[in-house]
Amino acid sequence: MARSMLIISRQSPWAGPSAREALDIVLAGGAFELPLGLLFLDDGVFQLVGSQRAASVEQKDLTANLQALPLFGVDALFAARRSLAERNLDESSLALSVEVLDDAGLSALINRYDHVITI
Amino acid sequence: MATLHLLSHTPFGDSRFSSCLPLLADSDALLLTGDATYALTAGTQPAAELERLPEQVAVFALDEDVQARALSALPARVQLLDYAGFVELTCRYQRVNSWL
Amino acid sequence: MKFAIALFAPPHSPAARRALRFAEATLAGGHEIVRLFFYQDGVHSASANSVAAQDELDVAAEWSRFVSANQLDGVVCIAAGLRRGVLDAGEAQRYQRPAANLAAGWELSGLGQLHEAAQQADRLVCFGGH
Fold it and tell me: For the whole model, what pTM was predicted?
């Protein structure tokens, strides 16, 4: 059986290439139809905010790429409840459909995967 | 099942330490390397938070980093490792989550 | 046990040295390294162009020696490398850049190599930060 990997993305889209390079790992794995999960943690939850304007700082639109994840067969998408709450983000108005997990849920999630990469 | 969480950033002014601690399950372990070993500094908030972790959570630190920083009066629960011990630890836990 | 080791930090970061000492210890402990993969700022640790001061450890050079001496599979992410100016001769020519700087022992390839390594490995251990 294929080994599974959880990618934990904890940088905002605007903090350099980290958010994109975390997503690139997911997309590359999706192309091989590997069992992957993507968790948005800490500032990574800012990737889930709608109506961001990448062109304003001459960048590519990361959110558009995130929305393509299900097309790549990646639908195990998660966000940390604590991170959302700290940043006053409303779980019901995110730009991507994610499962929101509390701390215990996150512990269990991490322990379900063979490999974890936190960027 | 269990995960070895690996930290290398300082707990002072970086959020990784405080983000990691609530995610530790009882069977998980924490390995402090680099500036993350400053969490062992006696009398500090991070050291107090380490002491408050559930008893079952094992706490390790890379000895060379502790030595380099002249850290003393370490919490009793901390076990110091060399690189051979580090490798052995990664074998003992099912996965390693490095907070890059 | 089979290890995949990934480095995300440049040679001047303590994490680059820590990853090297860990990699050495895996081999010394009788384990196998299925692949080394350098990603993000880790690509700088595979540059032949960083110059350490004479009395300082040359981590990039040590990595190059380690990979060559143990005939390891050392892969540098091509997209991350291009973004940060770590190029082999082929890429330098393709993008008309003045020099190639990928150190001996390494090859540029895609992120699929990270996943392939993770599929083979019992443990994926990543290094970054300070």
Answer: 0.97
